[in-house]
Each structure stands twice: as structure tokens, then as C-alpha cells.
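To assess whether ligand presence alters the predicted conformation, the chain was also submitted together with manganese (II) ion. Input:
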Amino acid sequence: MNTKDLRVNGKRLQQTLEDMAKIGATPAGGVQRLTLSDEDKKARDLFVKWIKELDMEVIIDEMGNIFGKRAGKNNDLPPVMSGSHIDSQPKGGRFDGILGVMGPLEIVRTLHENKIETERPIIIADWTNEEGSRFAPAMLSSGVWAGALERDWAYDRTDINGLRFEDELIRIGYKGTVPAKNWPMHAYYEYHIEQGPMLEKDKKTIGAPKGILCLHWYDIYLDGEANQVGPTPMEGRHDALCACAEMILKVNELPDRMGGNMVATVGEIQNYPNSRNIIPDKVHFTVDIRSWDDELGIKSWELVRKDFEEIAAKRGCPIRIEETWRVEHAPFDEKLVQGILDVSKELGYSSLHMVSGAGHDASYMNQLAPAAMIFVPSIGGRSHVEVENTTWEDCESGANVLLHAMLKSANEV
Ligand code: GLV
Ligand code: MN
Ligand code: MN
């Protein structure tokens, strides 16, 4: 068969995504498949079953990353890899991550049924804990695999209930024996929903990001003094939640103060003892800063950190700051990105050269090999929410772009 005419099976991809969406389905149409939860295990088991059906070699490393390897004609050549993540946000959507694992699965199914061999091996990857919402930081296991993060540090990360990453990995049976250590790669592609409004706004089908913003995460711990809210005068209080409230607004104002080109968010907060009639004496909250300009990200953090220290001193609330994680902005391989734009054109899809505001495992893969991503539109620009949606037609179109981009790379010798 002339591979030029090859197309994925859109109906099969839809069915696969619908089957996966049942695992951890939420009443409002989303998915909750937190990293290393029972739902994550169930979805992993299904993925492993599917890759085995394609006679792929299954590799599970010590971070629980799952790889499905399809042999090439020459297995000494570095493989072409494509992957993303099976885990989701709490009350997340049915496409974030999973599309980037089921997409390449559909590619291999298409090659398999058409008996098409490639020069290089093809590997599908499911990276453990991309979301970082149960165990911070995000992209934890692709980070270890890339050599950017320490395995034992990752093992000791704990969730809100104090459960350790490694213990949970063992509990669900996915602590493999293969070292989480990168091997040579010829190219890495990640297929994903856009998670923003640009493609829909521009009426484009395919997005080819030139790269991903830098991502900086911080954890702030405040101490106050608990007391009965009724008899305790307002004067002289050490209210940790009020200190936090002032700090949150400083974070929200930061992009304006810095002249734009960045975003800053407080998304998580824990307040203790969380009783309406006790002055809060402990607060933990998170800060997420993103920009294309790494320096701007750092400068803005330094500014807001000073604000935090002043607020903490003014309110008599001791502060502890943890600089949890930083990943630099990732400019993708220009040739590979152009390849995505070219393939889109050849297949008759409109496309947009853009930027990714969302973080992806491709950030770490980009440090190892030429990397690029393929985006498809998010309806209403909504993501990390239960109503997250993308048309089946767009899912199919993106998979066709992935198919031909991967075929091209996998046949380069
Ligand atoms: C990953 O989901 C992110 O936070 O962008
Ligand atoms: Mn994702
Ligand atoms: Mn996500």
C-alpha cells in the first residue's frame, strides 16, 4: 500500500477514548483518574492489554512509566517515540493526556492491520504523574527518565494524606524493574488537546506549538495563632488565612506589574483547622508562574517573594517557602514543527503556529531529542474541567497528522 493514502480509523479511536473515559468517569461527564489511584491502575491495565494485542514489547520502569515498543526493520536505530499521560486532574476532562496515549496506539493499530513496517522502532509512552495534582511536581516521571529529577526524591513525594509516591506505585503493581533512564531517541511527538482558545478562535484544526512556557512551582506554609473567634479582639490577631489572602492577590496582580507575557496562579490552598469559629493557624498554598521568558518568571517570583515576606512580618505570621520545581521554557525542534505544519497542509487541514501554555512531558523529552507537539481544538477553550471536549472529527484529524509525522521520522535512516 502507498502509505501516502494511509489514514487512521477515527471510529476505533473514538471507541478507545470512550472506553478509557469510563474509567474514573464523573457524573458531570469528566474523568477523575488521579496518579497511582485504583482508576489509574485500571486504565493502565487496559492500555497494557491493548499494546500486548499488537505484539508490542511492554516495558515498565521503576517510575511506573509504561512503554509499548513495536520493532522496526533495523532495531539498532534509535526509535521514534510518542506519548503523554493516562492520569488526570481531580474532576478533569476526557481528553487531556489520554489522547496522546491512545493517539499513537491508533497509529500502531493502523500500521499493524496494514502490515506496514518502519525502518526504526516505534515506542508509545505513558508517563506517570504528568498532572502533579496528587504528587507535586508535574511531569515527575518523564523528568526522572530525562535525568532532570532524582528518582529517590520523586519516590518520597507525598500526597495530601501523607502517602508516598513509591508506596502507591508498589500498591498498584506498577513499580517496574527497568531503570528510569532515557535511551537514545530519534524524535519525540506528543499529541494533545490545545487546552486553550486559540485554535477555535482562529478556526484552525491543527496547532503546531513552537514550544512550551517555562513552569515554576512554589509551596508556601504560613503559621498563625489559633483562637476563639468571638472573644478574641481583631487587634493583635495572627490570622494565617488573612495573610494568605493578601498574598494571593499579589500573585494575581503580578503579570500586570511585570508588563504581561506571563501568567501567575494560586490554585491550591489548605487551611487549618478549617473551622468557621477558629482563627486559622496554618495555611499551605501553591504558586504557579509561567512565561516564555524564564528570566521574567524568576524576576517576578523574586518580587512577589519579597511581598510575601513583608505581609508575613506585618501580620506576625511566620512563613516558610519551598521552591518546589522549575522547568525551563522548551523551544521545540524547528524542523519537526515545520514537519507538522507541512503534513497538516498535505492532508488538507488548516493549521496554526502557536505556543503551549500548558505543561507537557514533551518539555523534558525536548531536552533529549528533537521534539514537537500536535494540538487539536478544545471546545470553548476549556480544559482541566469536566466539560473539556474536542470533536471526534478533530481527534481523527490530529491522529492522521501524528501518523504521517511519525511515519516520516520512523523511515528516516
Ligand atoms: C499540566 O497539566 C499543566 O499544569 O499545564
Ligand atoms: Mn496533559
Ligand atoms: Mn493536564
